[in-house]
Predict the structure.
Amino acid sequence: MQPLWIAPSILSADFARLGEEVKSVLAAGADLVHFDVMDNHYVPNLTIGPLVCAALRKHGITAPIDVHLMIEPVDRIVPDFAAAGATYISFHPEASRHVDRTIGLIREHGCKPGLVFNPATPLEYLDYTLEKLDMVLLMSVNPGFGGQKFIGGALAKLAEVRGRIDTLGRPVRLEIDGGVKVDNIGDIARAGADTFVAGSAIFGSADYAATIRAMRERIAR
């Protein structure tokens, strides 16, 4: 198992002071910054693009930036996020006409590719792609909005993907996104996740550091 990472989603941050919010959450113990990129097409919401990623880099953010593309089509925007300073770029297989080509495009532009699975998306895509990925992201809510309740069926799916990754023997990160909170993060970790996206649970708390510490304590149990 790789080091366990806490990945605050800036979707829940105060956008009027985003640079300071990101610095604060990293100082509080977060490991990477999670970008939820929505296009009002693949999902029913509209959020942020590469300019925000570039602005955070210019603001002095050096931590890994984990870009989750909820957009369709995918390939056009990959070079822009790579140039803006993304570290990981993950996408939904339904949003790409040629999944293998998109994975290659992400890597060609110097980023680490990931594949994202909605709650009802089958894992069969991994039969042909897992050895080419650096991250698998499982959605534990339906994509498009923050603050949703965790879908319990994601735990069995996590365990299945953890088994696939362990069998493969490559350091592929297993990320969970949606409804992750202090009171369920322990169960999520036991199911096999090593990267935990949390938006409102962290940015909606009064003390970012205390919340992240509590999450790590639950994981350690």
